């Protein structure tokens, strides 16, 4: 059964505190009970957990002298979680309203990560593929110069939806 969750927006704002255990015990229990039977809120919680996890790792990455191989482990985990990225962006929206500086860090980390992926470049793309790309993107496709540009394009796309 699925009913419309009337207080979805309000609950989204509680999820961060819920995850950190900062809610009063009664609210914590109430929300926990609700999450057990509301699929929509449960999905939002899963996304928020993922965002929190990535944020935590981002903080660790910025710490001086991370342990050897840590970046590889983070990269491997991110690759394993590509399925969850759509949910992740949704969580990011929520978090952006709550703690914009935190979301900015996430966006930069994710933007930087996406930037390192094997994006097509003018050197690698053949003439035919270029034509296909230009059908999809009316403007000439250019590889972003830096993670900030990726961030800008991602946020502008997101706002259009
Ligand atoms: Zn709900």
Task: Note down, in words, how this protein is organized.
The protein is mostly helical. It has two domains: 1-99, no CATH class; 118-161, no CATH class. It contains eight helices and no strands. The protein is elongated. The mean pLDDT is 70. Residues 5, 8, 11, 34, 38, 40-41 line the site of zinc ion (ZN).
Task: Set out the fold topology.
Elements: H1 8-20, H2 25-37, H3 39-62, H4 70-80, H5 85-98, H6 100-116, H7 127-136, H8 147-160
Helix pairs in contact: 1-3, 2-3, 3-5, 3-6, 5-6, 6-8
The structure holds zinc ion.
Roughly how many Å is the radius of gyration? 19 Å
Number of helices: 8
Which ions and ligands are bound to the chains?
Answer: zinc ion
Q: Based on Cα principal axes, name the global outline.
A: elongated
The averaged pLDDT comes out at: 70
Total discrete domains: 2
**Helix-and-strand structural type:** mainly alpha
In whole angstroms, the N-to-C terminal distance is 28 Å
């Amino acid at each position: 059964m699925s009913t419309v969750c009337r207080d979805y927006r309000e609950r989204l704002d509680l999820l961060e505190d819920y995850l950190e255990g900062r809610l009063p015990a009664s609210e914590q229990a109430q929300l926990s009970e609700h999450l057990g039977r509301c699929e929509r809120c449960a999905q939002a919680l899963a996304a928020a957990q993922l965002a929190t996890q990535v944020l935590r790792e981002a903080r660790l990455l910025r710490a001086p002298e991370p342990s050897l191989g840590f970046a590889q482990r983070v990269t491997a985990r991110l690759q394993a979680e590509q399925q969850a990225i759509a949910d992740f962006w949704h969580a990011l929206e929520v978090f952006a309203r709550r703690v914009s500086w935190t979301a900015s860090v996430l966006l930069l980390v994710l933007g930087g990560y996406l930037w390192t992926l094997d994006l097509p470049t003018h050197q690698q793309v053949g003439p035919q593929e270029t034509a296909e790309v230009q059908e999809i993107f009316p403007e000439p496709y250019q590889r972003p110069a830096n993670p900030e540009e990726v961030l800008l394009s991602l946020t502008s796309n997101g706002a259009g939806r």
